[in-house]
Amino acid sequence: MTGLRYGKAALIVSGVAALFTAATAMYSAAEAKTVKIELTVKETQVPIDNQGHTVLGWTYNGQVPGPLLRATEGDTIDFTLINDAANKKSHSIDFHSARTDVLGDFAPIKPGEKKSFKFTVDNPGIYFYHCGADPMIQHIARGMVGAFIVDPKDPNAMPKADREYVLIEHQTFDNPEDIKAMMANQWTHDQFNATPFEYDPVHDTNATQTLEAKPGERVRIYFVNAGPNEFSGFHPIAGIWDKVYPSGNPKNVMTAMQNYTVAPGDAAIFDIISPKEGANALVNHSMRAALSGAIAVLMISKDADPSMGHGDKILVR
Ligand SMILES: [Cu+2]
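# copper (II) ion complex -> structure
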């Protein structure tokens, strides 16, 4: 019955503007929304390190990872994919948050083409989205990855987070044209949000950012393993995950976890509360991955920047 009620409400409430960040996420328990989302595929230069070197990436909206998408359980997503006419390749979208038709909605489109479809986000959680055009291993490795948060319609379904961060882990290859090396799993870097050690000035002195929080705050990490190949054993060095929610569903709750493995193409919510000032290092505890870039420093300080972990500082670029 609940689904029917939300479905009707979605027809009445239409024309809600595109929703890309938590800053604009408005929710009333009484009504489901229609959320318009448009992504444009751009084959463009993207940064590959903290020094400003770039490579030709394949992207959603010119960014790696793609824009953070967010809606509320029960919402209808009115989605449009545009393959920019300047591109050379066919591209597609694969939303793990959708139940739809892989041969239709998820099929690739050619440069200059556009397609639209609708789906409802029926389950709360954190979901991967990516390009599924052939060869998918290359489209993922070159940057066509992103995160879609579906907030629970019950605002009390989970403990309230004081700050939220999105980390999307993925492996990249020295030569983005070398599909043979990709199939042989000969990756060279593994990172969160596209740049090795982007939030780790300890391992890369060119890194300028860290994640931030105050002692005692509940920090919620929306973690996506984009692969394309490696599993990730996600661990907070000098900390313990207070809660882990596989797929981010509030009903899937685990307590006091030191590490939880997220498969390629999977995602989970990790909550951490750090009692004292200092730092945690959030890592894929597979050492080759961590030491190739998959480390993010979470600084714990009474003077933590209040903007960090909110609005456009949830996916920190
Ligand atoms: Cu693609």
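# post-check
Residues 1-27 have pLDDT under 50 and may be disordered.
Helices lie at 2-12, 136-141, 179-183, 287-290.
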